[in-house]
Structures are given as structure tokens and as C-alpha cells.
Design brief:
The protein is of the alpha+beta class and 328 residues long. It is built from 10 helices and 11 strands. Helix 3 packs across helix 10, helix 4 crosses helix 6 and helix 4 crosses helix 10.
Length: 328
């Protein structure tokens, strides 16, 4: 699909116990990180089992044994080529997950939500290259001029593309951890699947960044969860998606958060009415899944540099001109 000189292409690969990351996959991505090393297959098997168990707990009616459903996951990779270059010039723009739900009793497969996880080399560039340089020059506080605008405009352009519309019927929902820098206040609003809603008076850096992508954040703590999740969405989160769709996102992303943020999402106590997450919290349990968080942080910097060299430097001037006028 060509639009304004951009060609978007979408590829799909199953995320299952046989998954092996493609060469151009960001290796800090949740799913790719789990699929490395000696424990890769055991990691994947245990992660997928956790997702299925959580989904069945959320969709518990007419499900007495808690094994009626299985969640199938596909990794969606969106690549961008600028101009009429060869296919090997395509830059890996975004990786997200697409859920589907198998009803074993009825023998059906139902589309879930696209989005869930969100992986972006350009976001690594913004937070691991642009932001540190801004702090070095100006000290802490504030953000660089036009920070996140190119990334946000490319994301919105992708959602409007024929490539996206041909594959997906609804806008994405991204589900991430809440920020450890803010306090979240429990409200009286409750949803049967999303759970109890929390609100905050402050927006995190991630909230601001996703706002540039046209996405709004709401925070919900599902039943039997211990902390709220941040749901970034376009439109009406509650009205636009079914219980089954929402449950597929919660079960998938809460599982990842239990692995990667156990201090918050695998804590041994439930979030308070006025809740401030902390990665220094000590009263938590570990999953039996191998994960190196320090390596993940280090590699994010390397991948930000990759985006700078392979995408920003060769195309920076053209991208800046396009980004400045794409909304006009």
C-alpha cells in the first residue's frame, strides 16, 4: 500500500512454544525476550499456559472446569519503506500482538484485539537517544521540542493505511504497566471484565507519548489482579470492544507484566485506594520464567541507536517535512 510515498507492509507469525524471533525483531520485545536462551521453550510453554488460565478465570461463566478457552497469539510486524526502494530497505516500524480466542466446546475461533504489546524502534530512539541528549544539554525536566511527534504521526498514518484496514476491523488497544512516578486513585466505577477503574491527576511520560499517537489512557484493575493496568485506546474502550476481546488483552498483558514487573503485578497484596506503584516493593512472588531485565534495558539503547543510523539519519529531513505537514 503506497500513501504519501510510504509503503506499509504487514507480516504475521504465530507466538507459540515453537516461536523463534525473526532477524529484524526488536530483541527487547516481551515475546522475543522470552524466546531466547536455554529456557526458551519452557518459558514460552509456561507463559502461554498462564495466559490461558487467566483468560478462563475472567470468562468463567459456562466454564465450570476453567478450561473451555485458549488464547492464540500472533505477532504482527509492520514495516515502512519510503519511496520506491527495494524491499530490503523496509524499516521495521512497529510490532504488536493480535489475539484470537478458541472456544473448545463450540469449536469456534473468534477475533480478539490487535495491539496489546507495543514495540517500536523509534520509541527506543526517542527515549534512549533523544531524551538523554536533551537532559545532558539542558538538565532534567521538560522534553525536547516536538518530542514524539514523528513517531505519533507515523503511527496514525499507519492506522489510516489500507494495509491496516485490510487486516484489522478495529483500532488497537495497547496495555502497559502504570507509572511508578504517579499516584492512582480508586473510583466507584467498575466493569465486569476490566474491573475497578483508577484515575490519576498526573499524566506520565508514556501517557503524553501515546497521546501523540492519538491514544487516551484509562486505568483498570481486573478481578483477582493486584494492580491496575494502563489501557491506551482510540474511541470508547468500554463500548467498542466485547468482554471476550477485553479478556484476551488482560490475560495476555497481565501475564507479561507478572513476568517483567513482579514488584507491581505479582505483589502479595492488592493495590490500595490511593496507589503508587513501586519497583522497589519487596513483598512479591516470582514466576517460574527466566528473564533478564537488566539486559533488556541495555539493549533498548542499542536499538535506539539502530533506529538513528538506519532510519532517522538517512530519512530525517524528508520525515521532518512530512511530519510537519501531514495533519494539514
Amino acid at each position: 500500500m503506497t500513501d504519501s510515498g510510504f509503503t506499509f507492509t504487514i507480516s504475521r507469525i504465530a507466538f507459540d512454544e515453537d516461536y523463534r524471533p525473526a532477524d529484524n525483531t526488536r530483541i527487547t520485545t516481551n515475546f522475543a525476550n522470552l524466546a531466547r536462551g536455554e529456557s526458551r521453550q519452557e518459558n514460552l510453554r509456561k507463559t502461554l499456559a498462564m495466559i490461558d488460565h487467566r483468560f478462563n478465570a475472567l470468562m468463567h461463566w459456562d466454564n465450570p472446569a476453567g478450561d473451555r478457552y485458549a488464547v492464540d497469539l500472533s505477532i504482527i510486524s509492520a514495516a515502512l519503506r519510503i519511496g520506491a526502494g527495494a524491499s530490503d530497505d523496509a524499516f521495521p516500524l512497529i510490532e504488536i500482538l493480535h489475539t484470537a480466542v478458541v472456544d473448545r466446546r463450540r469449536g469456534t475461533r473468534t477475533d480478539g484485539i490487535v495491539g496489546n504489546n507495543f514495540s517500536s524502534y523509534i520509541r527506543d530512539y526517542d527515549f534512549c537517544v533523544v531524551m538523554p541528549e536533551h537532559v545532558r544539554r539542558n538538565g532534567p525536566g521538560g522534553v525536547p521540542e516536538q518530542f514524539g511527534e514523528l513517531h505519533g504521526n507515523l503511527f496514525k498514518h499507519f492506522l489510516k493505511s489500507a494495509a491496516y484496514r485490510d487486516h484489522f476491523a478495529k483500532p488497537p488497544v495497547i496495555c502497559l504497566s502504570v507509572s511508578s512516578k504517579h499516584v492512582y486513585h480508586r473510583t466507584a466505577n467498575a466493569h465486569p471484565i476490566l474491573g475497578v477503574e483508577y484515575r490519576t491527576d498526573d499524566l506520565s511520560a508514556t501517557d503524553h507519548y501515546f497521546a501523540k499517537m492519538g491514544m487516551t489512557a484509562r486505568y483498570f484493575m481486573p478481578s483477582h489482579s493486584v494492580a491496575p493496568l494502563a489501557f491506551y485506546h482510540i474511541g470508547d474502550l468500554v463500548g467498542d470492544y466485547s468482554d471476550l476481546e477485553l479478556a484476551s488483552t488482560i490475560s495476555t498483558m497481565e501475564t507479561f507484566q507478572k513476568i517483567y514487573r513482579p514488584e507491581i503485578y505479582n505483589a502479595n497484596s492488592v493495590a490500595a485506594e490511593h496507589y503508587r506503584p513501586s519497583l522497589n516493593y519487596q513483598d512479591y512472588s516470582l514466576t517460574r520464567i527466566v528473564y533478564d531485565r537488566e539486559e533488556r534495558s541495555r539493549l533498548a539503547v542499542e536499538q535506539g541507536r539502530f533506529a538513528e543510523e538506519q532510519f532517522i539519519k538517512p530519512h530525517g529531513a524528508a520525515l521532518a517535512r512530512w511530519s510537519a505537514t501531514c495533519g494539514l
